[in-house]
Amino acid sequence: MTADGTLFSARVSGAIADPQLQQALSNVRRRFVASRAAAKAALPEWGALSDEARAIKDHVLAHLDLYLEAWEQKATAAGAKVHWASTAADARDIVLGICRQAGAKTVTKGKSMVAEEIHLNQHLEANGITPVETDLGEYIIQLRGEMPSHIIAPAVHLTKAQVEADFRKAHTNLALDRSMAEPRELVAEARGILRDKFLAADVGITGANFLIAETGSSVIVTNEGNGDLTQVLPRVHVVVTSIEKVVPTLEDVSVILRLLARSATGQEISTYTTFSTGLRRPGDPDGPEAYHVVVVDNGRSELLGTALQAVLRCIRCGACMNHCPVYQAIGGHAYGAVYAGPIGAVLTPALNGVMAAKDLPNATPFCGRCEEVCPMQIPLPGMMRHFREEQVKLAKAPVSQRAGLAVWAWLAGRPRLYRLAARAGMRVLEMIGGRAGRIRSLPLATGWTRHRDLPAPEGRTFHDLWAERQRARGKA
Amino acid sequence: MPTVALFVTCLVDAFRPSVGMAAIKLLEDAGCEVVVPEGQTCCGQPGYNSGERAAAITIARRVVAMLEPYEYVVVPSGSCGGMIAKHYPELFVDDAEWGLRAKAVAKKTHELTAFLTGGLGITSVTARFPAKATYHDSCSALREMGVRAQPRKLLGTVEGLTLTELSERDACCGFGGTFAVKYPDISNAIVEKKTADVAATGAELLISGDMGCLLNMAGKLKREGSKVQVRHVAEVLTGMTELPAIGEARRP
């Protein structure tokens, strides 16, 4: 999950030069942004709902221990086995232990970002257990051996043609003349393969969008129904989730649900919203014989009571990514982290340390659109600025940048000198610009002139013009 | 007659002084007395956004003290205006005295077109600027200063000017201050989308209210060989047709 500077810039260059990725990303801009805007416009109480959702999460985070204990009590009473994992390694081992105890050879998996965060699949595979991703996007990237590039649309970086090629490579019995041009044909193919996997799996692993303290339930939202098959068909259901997902009541879930799908895809509600409470009871037509919930901390509790606490309000809708000009330009993989986009630029250093993600909080123009569209009102740009300040404090900001800013700050406090410097500097630039009025290449400003001209200044500074006017009017 | 302090911004001072003069004309035509407080340099935003909080605080103190005596502060920029109006109070969250002083200055600081239409109640300008134009909302004007309708309202009264909207009105131009030079490839990928959007409108004039965005978009358009002219809203509202547009060749 590191993002070293050179690697970051190499990934960025690769992403920008990749025509298939750019084609796929244009769909993000077109589809998600427009659908969310329409969904928001159709909901006059959006602002009030967002305030309420934020207040729910703020309240929970202020009393997180109490709500987690309350949830644990109810969940245990309903037959759940609750496991607390303070690190990613703990969480991996707990899940592996459960799978071994169940004698599992294959496990099916619903989409879970926390499972990605703790690198669960690699750990299971290394220990002889085969995880099968059942969310279509996750299934595709598992075939490709990739990380998700988006919180809710893990394969959004791919085009249809790429997915077809992956299927033809992996599904060797697929007839060459069978059409795979339409998304529904791709879905049908994946569904056919996955049916058998669902039936064969010994353990089903899902994430959770919410834990409900009032009832001891866990909740998942999906559009494909794969989560339900994952958790209902195998004997054992394991939920892998994190501490900040708990909310007090069912009412609270319904408030946040109204914002979640609208912010994510523009749907009023996801196709499936599934509440799981305990084990299969006598008379239930289906349900697991064992229900484990692994609640992961992995650095989150360290954020409580700090300037970063609000990031734990995140409900993983992905709206910040969809609307981010940087994400739209480079996609998720360039971030080099499990969580991409603005939320990733904050979560990655928040969970893994400032130096684990040097570029991510810096590589943004601070346009503020992420904060504007965030249904939980997380001040993402302010948090990125916080990490920039941390880097300066640790003396880890680039030396050239620090030196340049030191000169700038020194001059900014000395108006007379500043005027002289501005006057001289602008004269020079105006001369370089000459008749053309623009500068095509400037040795000390190649960052600027690599891709665009520098418009030449008019020549005189405003303060000189103003002083002249005042003199002419006898006011100086 | 209200007295207005003009905070001209470092980019206007250096690159486009005519924008400052145009702002003065608009304010004076609206009946204001305009003063330019001595000792203006920069609002501190480059340091603030680069993590140099201490340097930003030092500069913010100077600017707050400088602007305190005036009834109104007007800035021909959403970005520097947003720095003073939104971020200065944040800089002093742990400093009760300066926090109050910064808040008082923040409250009376306005973006130029918002002040003209809101504070002064101006509904039209007397200017002629025949062109088919489009308008780019700078992110800070839009999201920090609530500026969207105000410049359009005034531009609508400029004789000969027609306005066609961009398809992605809320999208950043990719400038972002030091971001543009620290991450030039990402910045370029963003501004390319903007110039394509501008081209799609068929406009011959691109207007915005922030010098940073304007230098970025003009620089890109000129590199692409585009004929689109780029101007600050204050130039258009005062009909400065004689002045070459930003990044445009000098008249012989």
Features:
heterodimer, A: 476 residues, Rossmann fold, 21 helices, B: 2 domains, 4-stranded parallel β-sheet, 8 strands, 50% helix, globular
Description:
The complex is a heterodimer of chains A (476) and B (252). Chain A is of the alpha/beta class. Chain A has helices spanning 5-16, 19-41, 46-62, 64-77, 88-101, 113-117, 120-126, 136-144, 160-170, 183-200, 226-232, 250-264, 319-322, 325-330, 341-352, 369-373, 380-393, 399-412, 415-433, 446-449, 462-472, and strands at residues 80-85, 106-109, 130-133, 203-206, 210-212, 217-222, 236-242, 246-247, 272-276, 290-296, 438-439, 454-455. Among the domains of chain A are: 43-302, Rossmann fold (3-Layer(aba) Sandwich), CATH 3.40.50; 400-472, no CATH class. Helices cover 51% and strands 11% of the residues of chain A. In chain A, the strands form three sheets. Chain A has a six-stranded parallel beta sheet, sandwiched between helices. Chain A has a four-stranded mixed beta sheet with strand order 8-5-6-9. The longest helix of chain A has 23 residues, at 19-41. The termini of chain A are far apart. With 252 residues, chain B is of the alpha/beta class. Chain B is built from 13 helices and eight strands. In chain B, strands 2-1-3-4 form a four-stranded parallel beta sheet, with helices on both faces. In chain B, helix 4 (53-67) packs across helix 6, helix 5 (78-91) runs antiparallel to helix 6 and helix 11 (184-201) crosses helix 12. The longest helix of chain B is centred in the last third of the chain and has 18 residues, at 184-201. Classes of the chains: A alpha/beta (476), B alpha/beta (252). At the A-B interface, helix 1, helix 14, helix 16, helix 17 and helix 18 of A face helix 1, helix 2, helix 3, helix 4 and helix 8 of B.
Detail the topology: elements first, then pairings.
The complex is a heterodimer of chains A (476) and B (252).
Chain A: H1 5-16, H2 19-41, H3 46-62, H4 64-77, E1 80-85, H5 88-101, E2 106-109, H6 113-117, H7 120-126, E3 130-133, H8 136-144, H9 160-170, H10 183-200, E4 203-206, E5 210-212, E6 217-222, H11 226-232, E7 236-242, E8 246-247, H12 250-264, E9 272-276, E10 290-296, H13 319-322, H14 325-330, H15 341-352, H16 369-373, H17 380-393, H18 399-412, H19 415-433, E11 438-439, H20 446-449, E12 454-455, H21 462-472
Parallel strand pairs in A: 1-10, 2-3, 2-4, 4-7, 5-8, 7-10
Antiparallel strand pairs in A: 5-6, 6-9, 11-12
Helix pairs in contact in A: 3-12, 9-10, 15-17
Chain B: E1 3-6, H1 10-15, H2 17-29, E2 33-35, H3 45-49, H4 53-67, E3 72-75, H5 78-91, H6 96-107, E4 109-111, H7 112-119, E5 128-136, H8 139-144, H9 149-155, E6 159-163, H10 179-182, H11 184-201, E7 205-208, H12 211-223, E8 229-232, H13 233-237
Parallel strand pairs in B: 1-2, 1-3, 3-4, 5-6, 5-7, 7-8
Helix pairs in contact in B: 4-6, 5-6, 7-9, 11-12
